[in-house]
Amino acid sequence: MVRSTVNEARLMSRVILYFLPLCSFFAASGFPADRLSPQWLPGGKVFYYQAESGEFSLIDSKTGIRKTASDLTELGLPEPAPVRSAEATIKPGRSERTGTPSGVRFVNELESEVNLFWIDASGKRNPYGKIAPKSERVQPSYEGHAWVISRVDGSDLATIEAGTTVSTLIIDGEGRKPAILSSVPPGTSPDGVFAVRVEGERLVLTRFADGTETILRAPIKEGATYRGRVFWSPDSRAFLVSAAVEVPERLVTILENGGENPVKTFPYAKPGDPLPNPQLVLFRLGSEEGQVIDASLFPRPFTRSHRIDVTWSPDGSEAYFDYNERGHQCYRILAVEAAGGAVRVVTEERSGTFIDYTAKTWRHWLHGSGEILRMSEHSGWCHLYLHEIATGELKHRVTGGAWPVREVVHVDVEKRRVWFLASGLREGEDPYHRHLCRANFDGSGFVRLTEGDGDHEIAFSPTREWFIDRWSRIDAPPVHELRSSEDGSLVCEIERSAADPGAGPERFVAKGRDGETDIHGIIIRPTGFDAAKAYPVLENIYAGPHSAFVPKSFGSHKALQSLADEGFIVVKIDGMGTNHRGKAFHDVAWKNLKDAGFPDRIVWIKEAAKTRPWMDLSRVGIYGGSAGGQSAMRAVLDYHEFYKVAVADCGCHDNRMDKIWWNEQWMGWPVDESYILNSNADDAHRLGGKLLLIVGELDTNVDPASTTQVVAALQKAGKEFEYMPIIGAGHGAAETPYGSKVRLEFLRRHLRP
Hints:
globular, 3 domains, mainly beta, 35% strand, Methanol Dehydrogenase, Chain A, four-stranded antiparallel sheet
C-alpha cells in the first residue's frame, strides 16, 4: 500500500482524500459543509484550504492572490506524513472541543483485528466497532475529538486527536506509554527552597536543603481547616492560603427504575442554602504565626468553594482576588498587601438589580503599566474601562455608547489597543449581530472591522495581521472574507456559500410591550407550505436571562423545522428579560422570571399574524425545556387566553427547588416573597390550558422533584393535565425518542384539527 501519495487514498468514488476535509462526505451525511479549515504556512502570511468542491486554494494574505489546484502537490505543498502507532505515545485523553468536521483514516497493518473507541468529554470510551486485520477505515470526526485503538485483550495501541483535516494513523505495533515525569511537590515556593504541606488546622513548612520542618499556625475560626492551594508570592517571601469551616451540603436523591443500583445521591445546593465563608490567611517567611486577613470588604462571598483563589503582582507586593457578594449586587476586585495584610478595593461595581458576574466581569491585568482593563455594565451597557491598579482611579473609558461589548478577543499590550466583538452597532441591523471592533486603551481609534449585515465569527492569522471573517444571517448563507486586522479592509472574498437563502426561517421584528423597543424573532413554515391554509402557531421558548436564544446564523435548524413540517408555524422570540440588549432590557427578569417576555411575545405574534393570515391565532401552543419548561407552563397559568396548549420539559417550576448559582443570580438573596410569586407550583390552581409535563427521572441539572411538586399542586387543585416521566432519561427528556413522540402526539391532538 502506498501512503505517500494523496491520490492513492481516494475513497467514496474518489471524493474523499485522506488529507482533505471530508466536505462531500459530511454534506451527504448532514454535517455542515460551509466552514473553512484554513491551514497557515510558516510565517503566517499564506494559508490554504479545501473548498466543498474538493479543490484546494492557496491565498497570499498580503495580496489576496489565489492559486487553485486539485491536490496539494500541484500547489507545491508537502504532504503530511501519517502517524505510525509504533512511534506514537499513548496518552490518556478526552474530546476537549468540537471544531470543524474532519476525520481519521485508520490503517490496520496487524494480523489481528483492533477495537476503535471515541473518548467523550468526560473521558468515557464509547465503542465504534472493530477494524479487521489488513484493512482500513475512514472514521468521520470533528476537530478536537479523541480516539483510541486497542487490542481485543484491551491493551491500548494508539491514541489520536482529530485535527482540522483528515489525518492518517497506521497501526503497526505497540505504542509507547508516556514517561512518568517527576513532579514538584504541591505548595513549593517559586525559588524551590520551601514547600508548604496542608495538615488540617495547621500548615507544615519544609526547607528542602536540610528537611527542617516548621509548624505554622494562625487564629482561624474554630473548627476551620486549611483548604486548597497555597499561593506563593513570586519572590517566595510570603504566601496566601484559605481556611474554612465545613458547611453541610444538601444532597438530592433520585431513583433509577430498573437500575442495578437504583438509589443515586448527589450534592445539589439550592437558593438560600448555607455557603462556605472561607478566610484568607497570609504567612510571611520568618514568622510561624499567620495573619487572618480582615474580611470587612468581602464578608459574604457567593462561592461553593472553601477557598479563595488569588493572583500575585509580578513584584510580590500584593495579591488580588475577586469578591462577588451573595445576592449578586456587589462585585469587587480586591488587593491584599503582602507586607501588612491590608485589604483595599481595586475596582467595584454595584447594582440595584443584579450584576451578570458570569459574563460581564472580564478583566486583563496590565502590570507593566500599573493598569487594569476591565468590563463593566454600570453605565447601562457593557463596556470596557481602564483603571490604575494602585488607586483604582478610572483613567479612560475605552468604549461607550448604546451598544454592548460582547466578548474581548485580543489585547495588544505593546500597541495599547484591544479587539472585541460588539453588537447593536448599526442602525437598521439586527442588534444581536456581532461585529469585530478595535479601540485604543485611551478610548480613541474606535473602528468596526467587519462589514456584512450578519453575525460574524472571527479567526485571526498566526501573526494577527489578518483575520478570516465568516458571516451569515438566518436568511443569508455564509460568506468567508479575508480582512486586515488594522483597518478591516477587505483583502479578498474567500468563499461564498451556494445554499438557497430562501430555504431558511423568516426574520420578523415588532415593537414590544412599551410600543418602542424592537423585539426580534423568526418564523418557520412547513416544507410544502400553502398560503391558502391556516396553520396552528407553535412557539419554542427559552427565556433564560443568561443569553439570547433566537438563532442568528444560517443553518438547517433541524429541530425547529421538523416540528414545522408536522403542520405548525413555529416561532422563536427573544423578549425582554433576555441578554445582550442593555441593562434596562435585561433587568426585566430581576426577581421576575415568570415574566419570560410574554407581554412582548404575544404582541410580536399578533403583529406577525396581521400580515400572515395563515397564522391561526385561535390555535397557539408553546413548548420548552429547563427554564423554557418553567416558562411553557407559566404560559398556560397567566396567558391561557392566548396560549391554549403547553408542553413543559424538565422545568425549574419553582426557583427555590433549582440550583443555587443560576437562580440566586436572577432572583436574588435572601430568598424572599418573589420566589413564591414566581412559582408555578404556588400558582398551579390558575391552570387554564392543556398541559403536558415531561421529566427525566435521572435529571441532575434540575431536580426532578421540581416537576413532581407541580404535579402534586395540580392534583390538589383538581386540574386536568398530562404527566410523562421518561425512565432512564436525564435533563432534556423531551428530546429523547419517546419524549419527542409523546410531545408531538400531544401537540397534534390539541392544536391540529
